[in-house]
Amino acid sequence: MSALVPLLVTLPLLGAAIALIAGRHRRTQIVVSIVTLTCVLVISAVLLVAVDVRGQPIAVSVGGWPIPFGIVLYVDGLAALLVLVSSIVLLAVLLYSVGQGAADGDDDTPVSIYHPTYLVLAAGIFNAFIAGDLFNLFVGFEILLVASYVLITLGGTSGRIRAGIVYIVVSLVSSVLFLASIAMVYAALGTVNMVQISQRMSELPQQTQLVLHVMLLLAFSIKAAVFPLSFWLPDSYPTAPAPVTAVFAGLLTKVGVYAIIRTETELFRDNEVNTLLLIVALLTMIVGVLGAVAQAEMKRILSFTLVSHIGYMVFGIAIATPAALGATTYYIVHHIVVQTTLFLAVGLIERRAGSTSILKVKGLMRAAPVIAVLYFIPAVNLGGLPPFSGFIGKFALFDAAAQIGTPLVMVLIIGGIVTSLLTLYALMRAWNLSFWRESDDDLSEPETEARVAYLGDSPQALVQTERRAIPRIMTGATVGMVAVTLALTVFAGPLYEVCSRIGAELLQPVSLVQLEQGAAK
Amino acid sequence: MSVSGILIVIMAVLFACGVYAMLERSLTRVLIGFLLLGNAVNLLLLIVMGFPGAAPFHGAEGEVSDPLPPALMLTAIVITFAVSAFLLALIYRSWQLGRADIVPDDEADLEVRERGEAVEDELDDEVELEEADEEETTDFIGTGTTPLRVLHHRDIAGIRDDAPTDDRDGGRPR
Questions:
Q1: What phi, psi does A308 have (nearest 5°)?
Q2: What is the torsional sign of CA A456, A458, A463, A468?
Q3: In the structure, what pLDDT confidence band is assigned to residue B142 with cuts at 50, 70 and 90?
Q4: CA-to-CA distance for A254 and A332, rounded, in angstroms?
Q5: Structural domains of chain B ordered from first start
Q6: Measured between beta carbons, which residues in chain A are less than 8 angstroms from residue B132?
Q7: A149 contacts on B by Cβ (under 8 Å)
C-alpha cells in the first residue's frame, strides 16, 4: 500500500515530462494528462479507503532513511480525502480546458506548455497535501506556485502580466516568510519533521512558541487569503483564463487552509491563538462578502466570495473541537468543488455572451437555458440554501460552534449567517441581471467565425469579447462538476461520517513509533 | 554554541533593504528586493546551523557541523534562482508591452471606484423587469392618458345643462 504514496507526486511529474517532450503533438499531450490524472484519482481513492478502514495513517520514508532523518510522506485521512477531491477537480477542469483549446484551434507553441505546467501544478498540490515535514511542505508549495506563475501569465497579455506581477510578488513574500519560519523552527527544535516538532514544541517557552506560531500562520494566511492578507486574490485571479482561475480558486487557497489546519492541530498543540483566529475569521467573512456585493463583474464577485468563505474554514479551525474540525473538512471539500464549478459556469457565460459584466450580459435565460441551470445550482449551493451541501456544511459548523457557546463564537455564528445571505444576494443579483433581463440583441446565434487568438501571443487579445460556440466537452465537464456537487449533497451522510472521523483523528497526537509502524506496513 | 554576530547584523540589514526595495512600484527594484530577501533567508539558515565544524560524513573526528541546513539552503537557492529568472522574463515582457517597469493600477478596480449613480441604480433594481410587467397591467398609474374619457358638459359647447336639481339653493343651473 505504501508503494502507492510516492506515485501521487511522481506520476504527474513524469506525465509533465512526457507532455513537455511531446510538445508538438496535442493529442499525445491530452492523452498523457488525462491518463495521469485518472491514475492519481484511482490511487487516491484506494488510499482514502485504506486509511479510513485501518484508522491509521500511512507513512513512507523516501530514500530509505530512518524516519526522523529522511523525507517522510504522510497520508492520513485528511490528506487522502483532499488529494481525492483535488484530483477529481483537476481532471474535470482539464477536460474543460481541452474542450476550450480544441474549439479555439490553438495548436501552436504558447499552449504547448499548458499541459506540462498543469501537471506540475497537480504534483505540487499533491506533494503539499502528503508532506510529512515542514521543508517538504515548502517544496510542495514552491512547485505549485511556480507552476501557477506560468499559468496565470499564460499568453503574456498586458492584463495578465499586470495581474501576474501582483500575484507573484505577494506569493514570493509569503514563501520567504515560510522559509524564514522553517529556519527559526529548526533553530529552536533541531528538526523539520512535523511529528517531532509536535512532540518537542511543548518544551519551548510560551513566548517562543507564539513567535514561531504567528510567523507560520502569517505565511500560510497569505496563501489562504485570510482577511488582512487577502487583497491580492480578487486583484489577480479574474484575468487568468477561465479553467486556470477555476483550478486556482478551488485548490490553491485550500492548500493554505490545509497548512493552517496542520499548524493548529499538529504543530502547536498547547499554544493557542484561537481568539485571534476567530476575529480574523469574522473579518474575512464580512469584508470579503461586502467586496462581492460592490462588484459588477462575475469573476470578481466570485473571487470576493471565495475570500469570504475562507472565513468559515478559519472559523472551524479556531473552534478546534473534533466536531468543528470534521465540519471544516466537509466544508473544504464542498467549497473546492462548488467554487470550481461556479468559475467553470462563468467561463461558459463569458464564452456565450462575450463578457462577464452583469451590466452588459442580458437575456441569457432565453439564449442559454443549460448554462442557466449550471450557474443556478452551484450559486444556490454556495449561498447555503437547503438541501444543498453548502447548507449542510454551514449547519454542521454552526452546530459545532454553538456547543462552545461563548459570546464571541455566537457573534461569529451571526456573522456567518449574514455572510451567507449576502453571498446569496450577490450571486442572485448577477442571476437576475444577466439571465432574466430582456436582451436587445439576439444571443441565440453564436458568432463562430470570429476568433481571436485567445491564448495566443497578440497583446490585443486582452479581453475576450467575441461570442463563441461552446463545445460539448466544456458543457459536459461543467455538468460533471455540478453532478459532483449534487453527489456531495446526496451522499452527505457517509461523507460526513468520514469527515468526522478525520476531525477526531486530527486531534490525536501521533508518535514517532506510530509513524514507523505506518511505514513498516 | 556561539553564533557570529556579524552574520546576524548582515542578515538584518539584508532583510531591511530587501523589504524596502520590494515596496517600490518599479519591477526591477522588486526583483532586487527579492534577491536581497532570498539571501537574507539563506544567511538565516546558515546562522541556524550553529558553529562551523568539520565536514560531516567524512570520517571526521570531533565536532561536525550540522548537515541539514546546507541541504535546505541549496534547495532554497535553486528555487530563488528559478524564480528570479522567471521574474526577469516577466519584467522583460512588461517592458515590451508597456515600455515601463512600473506596476499599473488595476483597471477593474478603477472602474468600480469611478462608477456613477446610474450604474449603481442599474445594479440595484431590476428596472426592466418591472417595466415589462407594467404594460400588461390594467390600472393606469403613471400613464399619460387614460383610454376611458369622461365627457362633461363644459367640454362640448352645444350642451346646455339647465336641468333642475335637488339642491337646496333653488336648483339653479350650475
A1: -65, -35
A2: negative
A3: low
A4: 7
A5: 5-111 (1.10.287.3510)
A6: 438
A7: 83, 86
